[in-house]
Amino acid sequence: MSWPFFWAAASAFLLEGVVGWPRRVMHPVAWVGGLIAGLEHRWNRPETSERRRRLWGVLTMLILIGVTGGAGWAVQAVAGMWAWGGGLVVLCGAAGLAARSLFDHVRAIEGPLSLGDLPAARVAVAMIVGRDVDAMEEADIAAAALESLAESFCDGVVAPVFWFVIGGLPGLFAYKAVNTADSMIGHMEPRWRAFGWAAARTDDAMNWIPARIAGALIALFHPQGWRIMLRDARKHASPNAGWTEAAMAGVLRVRLGGSVRYDGVMTYRPDFGDWAAPRACDLQRGLRVYGLACAVLFLLLIAGGVAWPR
Predict the structure, then answer these.
(1) Per the confidence metrics, is the pTM higher than 0.70?
(2) pLDDT 10s digits, 9-30
(3) d(CA 123, CA 134)
């Protein structure tokens, strides 16, 4: 398969969207997580100065990108020597996408929430968010699920596709490693602030373009989505997450953001949108918006494959 990898990305996107990842099979991201955890345990010691821990964090990211990018290059090189190697590239590419799994996770929240089963909805939403869920009501659960759906549309769908198209498997694998590192160590708490600095900054850089593409795909057919996205996206503490969350708020005409609790501590966040807090029915609508955005992304990949000269 020749660069850019439009057809490979489209095929992987379709495969993952239809089949998903088998639940009984360990995902390759778990191996990356094990490597990150091992390096963090070795180098992120409390007695080490913050400056040195930041340097160790930079080295950790260089190792991660080198190992995962090198693995992607090796698989791609082997595939290039095999008549059916394109299938291997597509299969490995599908492992780096999460369109189907994201839909399934949010659908698992929407089902009990629509039936008024708050305990089951809290258990389901705890699978995809890190905030405290014990006291969540319908609006809190719907907002948490919609925010996760919007943000993960970038992290789990658009960004992996973007890096797959322009970098093949090396680009896709490296992105997944960086994103996993950010979720594990890219935090502001004292333990992570210095060591995880490089992970957070690298993730911000690699998501900068995809986040804006993802926001545009969500807002594509909705003027209010564009208005709220362009007005509120920069309110978010993250340079990227606000684009998709604000777009989703505008499209659904709901209010997202606001204060939430993490480990018993209240965190104050800005609001996105001018309307009331979302309800269970808005989560159903959000899934439809997500599905449409995925469909448009797939069509763009097909269009790119047709238009790009071979």
Answers:
(1) yes
(2) 999 999 999 998 887 777 889 9
(3) 9
